[in-house]
Write a structure and sequence with these properties.
By secondary structure, the chain is of the alpha/beta class. The chain has one domain: Ribonuclease Z/Hydroxyacylglutathione hydrolase-like (Metallo-beta-lactamase, Chain A, 4-Layer Sandwich), CATH 3.60.15. Helices cover about 20% and strands about 30% of the residues. The chain is built from six helices and 14 strands. The chain has a six-stranded mixed beta sheet with strand order 1-2-3-4-5-6. The protein has a six-stranded mixed beta sheet with strand order 7-8-9-10-13-14. A two-stranded antiparallel sheet has the order 11-12. Helix 1 links the parallel strand 3 and strand 4. Helix 1 packs parallel to helix 3. The radius of gyration is 16 Å and the shape is globular.
């Protein structure tokens, strides 16, 4: 499987990810936060078929280009069931804080333990938001962690729906139980690994 990161920028830089089967050229796009035209150009140039847009959580910097890309490609976008309130409330998804109004109403929903296109297993990791998830591929030892955990840091818990105690539980029971050599691809940092974060990187938060 190919991991193709692309940093996109609106108000905030965010990492969008293509996760593609190199043989079939089919896969998913994770967290298209901005620059829809650039993301679509990458898909077209590579001849990829995107089967689903996956959202790690419903903050505006991760969903800003979702609707445009979804319509252009004719594919659905999916978020954890707790993401309903984020997608439909600009104050919850923080777009309202910046004088915008992002509202998405056509999502499909998944739950903890589900498997979504791309062969990714859903790990519900609340704390940064109530709908935060990590998309985990055990076979390839890859996890897309959104804003739950970064290199040497973790997601903020002072936004609506944030909870520091839930985030600690998510780290202990969902992230740090993964194999140490699992690569973590986050929303706002360079890649790291479970082992690196467990042994000192983000462990300070615990």
């Amino acid at each position: 499987m190919l991991v193709k990161p692309m940093t996109v920028q609106d108000v905030i830089d965010v990492n969008a990810y293509f996760y593609i089967d190199e043989e079939t050229k089919r896969g998913v796009l994770i967290d298209p936060g901005a620059q829809a035209d650039d993301l679509l150009e990458v898909v077209q140039k590579n001849g990829w078929t995107i089967e689903r847009i996956l959202i790690t959580h419903g903050h505006f910097d991760h969903i800003g280009a979702v609707e445009t890309v979804s319509r252009a490609l004719g594919v659905p976008y999916a978020i954890h069931e707790n993401g309903r309130e984020y997608l439909t409330d600009p104050m919850m998804n923080l777009s309202g804080v910046f004088g915008r109004s992002i509202v998405l109403s056509e999502a499909v929903y998944f739950n903890d333990g589900d498997t979504v296109p791309g062969g990714l297993h859903v790990l519900h990791t609340p704390g940064h938001t109530r709908d935060s998830v990590v998309f985990y591929d055990a076979e390839n030892k890859v996890a897309f962690s959104g804003d739950t955990i970064f290199k040497a840091s973790v997601g903020r818990t002072d936004f609506p729906g944030g909870d520091a105690n839930l985030l600690r539980a998510s780290l202990l029971h969902k992230i740090f139980t993964l194999p140490d050599d699992t690569v973590l691809y986050s929303g706002h940092s360079e890649p790291t690994s479970v082992g690196a974060e467990k042994s000192g990187g983000a462990a300070w938060f615990l």
